[in-house]
């Protein structure tokens, strides 16, 4: 069983294996070939991979005879020429936006597994690339907000007077939002947070933050389908807008993370609401790529409106490439190891398994 690890292209800094997972795959009986330079963006040298037992090579050598191909973002189909028929291709393949590439993988005889489609079930937690990367993005959003903010986060009592603590509001308390709350608290901000799922109220309080909830209209009780939120009623949206209007004018930092699978991100902050914020406030919109939670947000850019900086964050985990690669690589290892058949010396993916059905992209 030969596993190929590809060097990513474009803006991608992460890598789909680290020396630790290389060793673990070898312990399972596999051999691992890593494309030269694959780890550079994550501060892992070819020598580090070699020391773990991997064989370095160029793309063609690494792909030749490989049974499993590991990637972070789906590779250009034409760059996979020479891959074996029936090989598994794992990564965040983004079938919703890359249908043509998925079709090209299929035409090349590859079995594509879109790892971002894992179901939110307990068994899949350790394999979940969305969770592992969102957690880092939630942390980095707060760090980036602090770097752009012209004031300090913690309260400081000095001989020259008192610096007031920053007020940080987190909208959407999933994996990224929870880490944003925890990070904001560690940095000394006064943190409040909101979500449509009532189950998050206790999680917010357990992190020492203040829950801000629509009280008079029902939200999604507990978890929505598969742990995801759904689209809210017009009545709820109006009540939420009113609540946000009264709260946001007093906030210095806002981190928005609200996503609805398969739909544009819900609009949570209007331009009129932005205008009520103090000049110098900072918003980091983690939903920027899905259309943004904030009116006027531009994905991949930082714009200033009404004196408020809006950062349209894109793939923030790429800016923490070493940690992001380590977690991503372990997610892929955990997936393959869970399905590894020791006798066959290969992963066996039952067609009727809930996880396999969810991620199979062909
Ligand atoms: P997500 O990225 O889909 O959405 C982020 C958050 O935005 C969610 O909490 C959602 O409720 C919220 N949101 C959506 N619309 C909103 C609106 N109009 N206003 C305010 N908030 C809104 O969510 P996620 O980070 O993937 O996590 C969602 C849940 O799934 C969490 O409870 C998480 O613990 C769970 N989860 C479980 C697993 C697993 O068991 N394997 C894996 C990942 C997540």
Summarize the structure in short.
With 362 residues, the chain is α/β, with parallel strands linked by helices. The chain has helices at residues 19-27, 46-51, 59-63, 99-107, 129-148, 175-186, 200-206, 234-248, 271-274, 321-338, 354-359; strands at 2-5, 31-35, 55-57, 68-73, 88-92, 111-114, 156-158, 161-163, 167-171, 190-194, 210-211, 253-256, 282-285, 302-305, 308-312, 340-341, 346-347. The protein is built from 11 helices and 17 strands.
Characterization of this structure:
This protein is an alpha/beta fold. The protein is 31% helix and 18% strand. The chain is built from eleven helices and 17 strands. Strands 11-10-9-12-13-15-14 form a seven-stranded mixed β-sheet, with helices on one face. Strands 3-2-1-4-5-6 form a six-stranded parallel β-sheet, with helices on both faces. Helix 5 (129-148) runs antiparallel to helix 10 (321-338). The chain is elongated. It starts with a strand and ends with a helix. The model has no long low-confidence stretch (mean pLDDT 95). Bound molecules: nicotinamide-adenine-dinucleotide.
Stretches where pLDDT is under 50 for at least 5 consecutive residues are none
Question: What is the number of helical segments per DSSP (H or I, 4+ residues)?
Answer: 11
Which ligands, by name, code or SMILES, are bound?
nicotinamide-adenine-dinucleotide
Order of helices and strands: EHEHEHEEHEHEEEHEHEHEHEEEHEEH
- Structural class based on helices, strands and sheet pairing: alpha/beta
Form type: elongated
Distance between the amino and carboxyl termini: 22 Å
Q: How much helicity do the residues have?
A: 25-40%
Order of the strands making up the biggest sheet: 11-10-9-12-13-15-14
Estimated share of beta-strand residues: 15-25%
Task: Tell me the Rg in angstroms.
Answer: 22 Å
Q: Biggest sheet: strands, sense, closure?
A: 7 strands, mixed
């Amino acid at each position: 069983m030969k596993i190929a690890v590809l060097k990513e292209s474009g803006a991608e800094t992460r890598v789909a294996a680290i020396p630790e997972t290389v060793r673990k795959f070898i312990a399972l009986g596999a051999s691992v070939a890593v494309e030269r330079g694959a780890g550079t963006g994550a501060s892992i040298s070819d020598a580090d991979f070699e020391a773990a037992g991997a064989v370095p090579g160029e793309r063609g050598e690494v792909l030749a005879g490989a049974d499993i191909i590991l990637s972070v973002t789906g590779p250009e189909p034409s760059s996979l020429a020479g891959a074996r028929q029936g090989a598994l291709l794992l990564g965040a393949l983004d079938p919703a936006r890359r249908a043509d590439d998925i079709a090209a993988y299929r035409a090349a005889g590859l079995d594509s597994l879109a790892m971002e489609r894992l179901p939110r079930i307990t068994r899949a937690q350790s394999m979940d690339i969305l969770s592992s990367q969102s957690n880092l993005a939630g942390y980095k959003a707060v760090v980036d907000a602090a770097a752009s903010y012209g004031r300090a986060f913690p309260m400081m009592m000095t001989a020259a007077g008192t610096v007031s603590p920053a007020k940080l509001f987190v909208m959407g308390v999933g994996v990224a939002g929870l880490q944003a709350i925890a990070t904001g608290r560690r940095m000394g901000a006064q943190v409040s947070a909101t979500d449509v799922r009532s189950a998050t109220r206790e999680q917010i309080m357990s992190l020492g933050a203040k829950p801000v909830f629509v009280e008079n209209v029902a939200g999604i009780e507990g978890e929505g389908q598969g742990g995801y939120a759904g689209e809210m009623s017009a009545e709820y949206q109006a009540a939420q807008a009113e609540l946000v209007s009264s709260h946001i004018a007093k906030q210095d930092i806002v981190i928005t993370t609200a996503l609805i699978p398969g739909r544009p991100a819900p609009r949570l902050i209007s331009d009129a609401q932005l205008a009520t914020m103090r000049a110098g406030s900072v918003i980091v919109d983690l939903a920027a790529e899905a259309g943004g939670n904030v009116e006027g947000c531009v994905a991949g850019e930082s714009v200033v409106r009404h004196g408020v900086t809006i950062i349209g964050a894109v793939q923030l985990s790429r800016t923490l490439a070493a940690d992001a690669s380590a977690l991503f690589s372990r997610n892929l290892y955990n997936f393959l190891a869970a399905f590894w058949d020791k006798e066959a010396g290969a992963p066996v993916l039952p067609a009727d398994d809930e996880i396999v059905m969810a991620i199979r992209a062909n």
